[in-house]
Every structure is written in structure tokens, then in C-alpha cells.
What we know:
The complex is a heterohexamer, with 2 copies of chain A (90 residues), 2 copies of chain C (130 residues) and 2 copies of chain E (121 residues).
Chain A: E1 3-7, H1 10-16, E2 25-28, E3 47-51, H2 52-57, E4 69-71, H3 73-82, E5 85-88
Parallel strand pairs in A: 1-2, 1-5, 2-3, 3-4
Chain C: E1 3-8, H1 17-30, E2 34-40, H2 61-72, E3 75-79, H3 80-85, H4 91-96, E4 109-111, H5 114-122, E5 125-129
Parallel strand pairs in C: 1-2, 1-5, 2-3, 3-4
Helix pairs in contact in C: 1-2
Chain E: E1 5-9, H1 18-31, E2 36-40, H2 63-67, E3 76-80, H3 81-86, E4 100-103, H4 105-114, E5 117-119
Amino acid sequence: MKTLYIINQPQKSEEAQPYFAEHDGIVLIEDAVVLATRETKQPHGLKQYVLEEDLIARGLHKKVASDWEVVNYPQFVELTLQYDKSVSWL
Amino acid sequence: MKTLYIINQPQKSEEAQPYFAEHDGIVLIEDAVVLATRETKQPHGLKQYVLEEDLIARGLHKKVASDWEVVNYPQFVELTLQYDKSVSWL
Amino acid sequence: MATFSLLVTANPYSSQGQFSAIQFAKTLLEQGHQLMRVFFYADGVLVASRLHAPPADEINLTKAWAKLAIEKDIELVACVTAANKRGIVNAAEAERNALTGDNLDPAFAISGLGQLTEAMLESDRLITFG
Amino acid sequence: MATFSLLVTANPYSSQGQFSAIQFAKTLLEQGHQLMRVFFYADGVLVASRLHAPPADEINLTKAWAKLAIEKDIELVACVTAANKRGIVNAAEAERNALTGDNLDPAFAISGLGQLTEAMLESDRLITFG
Amino acid sequence: MNKSICIVFNKAPYGSQSGRELLDIALMAAAFDMPITAIFIDQGVYQLLKGQEPDILHIKNHSATFKALPLYGIEEVYVEQQAMQQFKLDIHQLLEIDGLQQATTDGIRAKIAQSDFVLTL
Amino acid sequence: MNKSICIVFNKAPYGSQSGRELLDIALMAAAFDMPITAIFIDQGVYQLLKGQEPDILHIKNHSATFKALPLYGIEEVYVEQQAMQQFKLDIHQLLEIDGLQQATTDGIRAKIAQSDFVLTL
């Protein structure tokens, strides 16, 4: 099953990473959006999304690195349906 | 002034470390006591303490590495007086 | 169209998770999906108090959830164990525990963890905000 | 002998900081030191509610603080801004904010942040539990 | 076949209520006959350490409940090998839980992938 | 001479209330004429970024208050050079605060050492 990892704190991305599988995706929300300002090589060619509204809130909207795809809330909801399940890594 | 750093979460020790100065000390409490099960080389010959009651609570009392000094609550209170100030790194 | 449930464990005061959960809920409803239940657990239950007095220029999260619940007929359920130990009680629980007062907002119900399990089994997606 | 004050910002439910703070307070008093004030800020104010109903075999942190305050004549002060936005209100604040009920435990006072600054200036040590 | 759930414990005990409150979810899911996998990774492996005595801090000891997992029908219990090595723990230092197995990170990744729901707290 | 206080901001804004509630402490300490140093390290440097719009999430924007720090008599405001480099930020991307200076980690270590109180949240 394809899993969408929801990451809301910066340090949690690294903690969750060993468990990312091929075809999985991650979406950065809340304080974790700061991670999208840097190029990030994920294993398995994982899809990488970052939430637009949380970027705008923090003034980071124009600082997103090229390997992150910006999604808004409607697209975030759609993503949770495209993947078989969502896991919030707390 | 000599500072005693109070660390209560495992990841906070590394975050605070750049700011430790010569003659400072650190005391691990709560979940951070797990760090005392490993040898840890701190810069500046920093004094390293770990709280006994929190070790006992977690069954870690007999697993403390040799470079950590175990202190109980009365000794913890005394430490906060031996140092000029205490900083809880949250 | 899909049926969602949300599990909200986020502290309403010191984290952003409740804001995210409300925004997610509103968005999925706007898209025509169903929201079966919002289950509050861990520190998430704190939002179910009716005694919040935030500064006038700030959002009252309890009222924001209540508005959503009333307008869209959404179930807001707080876990009884998590709630009672966090000082969130309805009148019956207050009496049973000999407490002088209660503070549950009327838009929220208090019930058991079985409501979470049921939501998992009966929804297409469960999304957690912690 | 020294004079301490404590700043408690720890969430009483999902962290251990309030337990640590009580233990630290008891220990310093046993050693003959003074405890001028315990100031509750951020999520630390949540402990000042009198409506907690924890499981019977678990400690009630509010009562533990209250016992210490009464036996040793310790000031327990919760920051008004932090408290009101977190749903901790006394009768006067409840009325001012048109809330139906109040929940401040009588062992705690609600006051401004100036009480923290004053504690810093007048104590030999301020220890934070977060 | 009921939907399956995987509960991931990744925090040490007592500094937070995470372990305790995840355990309650596991027991409730068991009562609903959901197939359950319990996984202990990172500092979550400390949840399973023998000899915990949180009562000295007036904190309730929930570790005995982990031993009862098989009684509730929760038989898939895995502890991460890498975390055990990192913290220099061996299986004999952990609570005696029937069916407790060590798993590699690869194995745990597969368990997470197979489950219908995965919860952390 | 009054006791001095150093306030350390180490978290990004809005995901927690930490920045906001530390700011309130700084302002109150200023009212008591305590010498105050405000330090922004790690992800705390994001507190000072220009162009924040949390109102789109119905969250109150507290960043304007940082600009008012000098008005409250808080003139020692330091942002960590290493964090700026790590996050690829330059000083022009930050709020215009009179007297805002970049400091090295060594410089910040010294400020912390010199203060009578140091608070994080």
C-alpha cells in the first residue's frame, strides 16, 4: 500500500525516513515546512510535497527548493485520497 | 558565570551543546536520562550529571556509562546552588 | 466522494495541529467529501472546554469547531479517559467525581475510545493531526 | 540557605515537568531553603484547574501542589494571559468574559507576568521546568 | 477481514504520555478484533525495558500492560534490531512478552506498508 | 544594577506558541528595567523573517512586535550567523529591527554566560 507521511515538526522527517518505502510520499506541514527551503534527496525517489498555506504563514513561499512540490489544502486533501493511507509521524 | 544546563529531552542535549562554556555543567533529567547509557565526550571537560530517580523510573539505573555522575534530588538542588544559574534548554 | 474521520491529538494552545485539522476539515467538506467524526484524544481534548477566553483579536478554536459541527452536522467526540484526566468534564462526570463545576462545551460529546476504532472501520481515510 | 522560585511551563498531562517541579520543590524545602513563588506559564497553567478527574490510582497534580502550598505556605501563581487563553479562569474573569462557569483551584492565584519578573529579581535562583 | 492497525511506539516512557495512550488504543482495537501490530523503534524500545519503577516519582507504571498484550490477542510485537544495538540492549533486558520478536528496519518498513492504519503519538 | 536576562528563541513561529510567549516575558522584563538580550538561534531565526502572513491560517501575527523591541528598550538583539548560513538567509530578508546584529556561536555563548537568567520555551 502506498503511504503518505505527514510531517509537522522539522526533526521528524529524519526520524521517519528509514520507514519510507518505494512509491510513498511525504507532505511537510506546520513548522516542518522550513525543511523545503533546502534541496533534499530522499531514497526511492519518494514524492515530496510541502503545504503552501504553511509556507505563506512563515514568509517562506518564495524560498522553496526545486525538488519540493507546493500543494495547497485542496490538493493536500486529494493527496490523502491518492495514497492508500496517511501516517502522521509524531 | 558558571551555568548548569538542565536537559529533559534526548534531542535537546545536542541542540544546546554549542553554547556550553568551560566550567559549565549539564544534568540530564526525565526522558533525557537515556543519553547517560552511552559514553559521551563533551567539550571543555564539562561536568556531566544524570538524575538518579529518573534513571530508576526507567529501569536504567544499572546501565549508566562511566563518564556520567549519578545525582539524586537533594544533590540536584545543591548543584543548582553550586552553579551561578540554571538554564533549562527547551 | 470519500468518507473521512479525523483524529486530533494536538494541544490547542502550544501547537498548530488544531488549526490544521479545522482547515483540513473545511476543505474536504467544500470538496463534497463526508466527515464522519472528529475524535479528540490526548491533549486534543483540551479544545472541548467552553471556558476559553482568548484575546479578542484571536480565534477561539472551540467556537470554530462548534460552528463547523452545527453548520455541517459533524460529530465532535472527546475520549472520556483523556478528557477527565485533563480537566474536561461534563455535568454527569463532574457529579460522579465530586467536582464543583463542569466545563464541556455543548458542541462536543464525551465517549469512549471505541468511537475512534469505529471511525477507523467505517471511514475511507483517518487523518491524524498531532 | 537560599531563596528559590520555580517557573513551570510543563504540560501537566503529556510531560513529566510538573512531577519534576513538585519533587524539586519538596526537596529544597526539606533542605531548609525558601521557596518564594511557583509561577505557572504556558501549558504549565493547565494544572491550576480544579476539575481534574484522574484515574483513582494516579496522582492528582493539582492537589499535590495545593497540599504543598498549604503546608509550606507557598505562593502558586498562574499567568493570567496564559491561563485565560487555555481555559483556566476564576469567577471574576469568567464573568468579565461572559463564560458560564469557572475552574480555578482555590490554591492558585491568577496574576500578571510581573510576578515572574519580581520572583527573578528577589530570588537567588529561578529553576524552570518545561 | 477487518482492517489492520499498526501502532508505533517511538518515545521513551514517562517523559510523555505517548506510550500509555497508544497502548489504550491498541487494547481498544483488539476489542474490535482488528489485526494489530505493535512496533517499538527509536527510544520507544525503552518502553519494554525490565525493572521500571516510576512509582518512586508517583507516576503510574504502565509497563506491565505490555506483558499482557498477547492476552488481548495482540501477538505481533516487534522491537527494532537497530535501536537495540544503538542503545546496547539485548532481548533478555526486555519484558518477557510471548512472541516478542526483533525485526530489522526493512522488516518494520514492510509491516508499516501492509497495515491499513498506522498510528504514532 | 538590575539582574540581566537573556531570552533565547530557538523554534520556528506558529507551530508552537514559544516565540509569542517568550516575547511577552521580554516585554515584561523590560518594564522592570532588567537589561535584556534577545537571541535567535537554530530555527528561531525564522521568527524574524519578513513577509509572514499567518492570518491566512487565522493565526495572529506576532512578528511586528519584534520590530518594536527597541521601543521597549531592548537593544541587544542577536541572530546567529551559523543558523543564517545553514538556512541560506541574509540579513536583508529579516525584519528591520534597529540594532539587530549577527553574532557567532562563540559570541552567543558569551552572552549566555554573562546573563543572570537565560530562558528558552
